[in-house]
Write a structure and sequence with these properties.
MOCOS_middle; about 15% helix; MoCF_Sase_C; about 30% strand; alpha+beta; 4-stranded mixed beta sheet; Molybdenum cofactor biosynthesis protein
Length: about 260
């Protein structure tokens, strides 16, 4: 099988649930339109995210991108609250403040979003087989839960586990590849944080997750993988940059993926 684009996941509000789409538009920054467009911040301007607030895992969100709405399911509540992201911002902020127990606001950046890696604004890439393999390291976890924990943007199928590890090279070198007619540069393997160690619905920690992950990642690293980007092995998925020539282009489910020979 040819490698192909199997899933596109956008995260309209940083740290909340994803929305799966059939296609996505590339912005001039290299980010995908609507991905991490909004971020929740506290009064000090710090991100209210899964790294700092495990409680956020229990908050469910659904998005209607065309309608610009978010539907929130508050834990221990029997009803959903729906807000327009542009016209009902204050009500949304008030509901989120009540949930967290301190004042928060919603920041917006429609040009590049709020990525963790501000040097590599492109979508993060992982393969379906990798998610399945990593899930097998943890009894009780399945591929869907691992997908929710890793929070990658685009998923490649038709390839073996860790296929995406060829999308980066030694530090400082970029790997060119295409998804459909969208040109990418693979940068490095993504450094993981505390978020994957927790249940994506409840926020409960999986015992020794990082230790198990690191041991297994090192043991299963393909022998053809460039090892220099691995100062540690708590890394998975690939950070990317997109050239300006990709701006305005559309990623579409089913697009073939080709590595451009250097």
């Amino acid at each position: 099988m040819m490698p192909y684009l199997a899933k596109i996941l956008l995260y309209p509000v940083k740290s909340l649930d994803s929305v799966e789409v059939e296609n996505a538009r590339v912005l001039a920054s290299g980010a995908l339109q609507h991905d991490r467009e909004f971020a929740i911040v506290d009064e000090q301007g710090r991100f209210v995210n899964g790294k700092r607030h495990a409680k956020i895992h229990s908050l469910r969100a659904q998005f209607a991108l065309l309608n610009r709405t978010i539907s929130l399911q508050i834990p221990d509540s029997d009803f959903q609250k729906i807000f327009h992201l542009d016209e009902e911002r204050q009500g949304l902020e008030a509901t989120l403040s009540d949930f967290f127990g301190f004042a928060v606001t919603l920041k917006q950046n429609s040009l590049m979003g709020f990525p963790d890696d501000t040097h590599s604004l492109g979508p993060t890439v992982i393969s379906t087989a990798t998610l399945a393999e990593v899930a097998s390291w943890f009894p009780g976890l399945n591929v869907d839960e691992m997908r929710r924990r890793m929070r990658a943007n685009i998923e490649i199928d038709g390839v073996p586990a860790f296929w995406e590890d060829q999308l980066f090279s030694k530090q400082g070198d970029l790997v060119s590849f295409r998804v459909g007619d969208v040109h990418f540069f693979g940068v490095n393997p993504c450094q993981r944080c505390i978020v994957p160690t927790r249940d994506s619905y409840l926020g409960e920690a999986y015992p020794n997750f990082q230790k198990i992950f690191t041991t297994q990642r090192q043991a299963t690293l393909p022998n053809w993988v460039t090892s220099s980007p691995f100062n540690h092995f708590y890394r998975l998925s690939v950070n990317t940059q997109l050239p300006l020539s990709s701006a305005g282009k559309i990623l579409q489910i089913g697009d073939e993926v080709d590595i451009i020979q250097q």
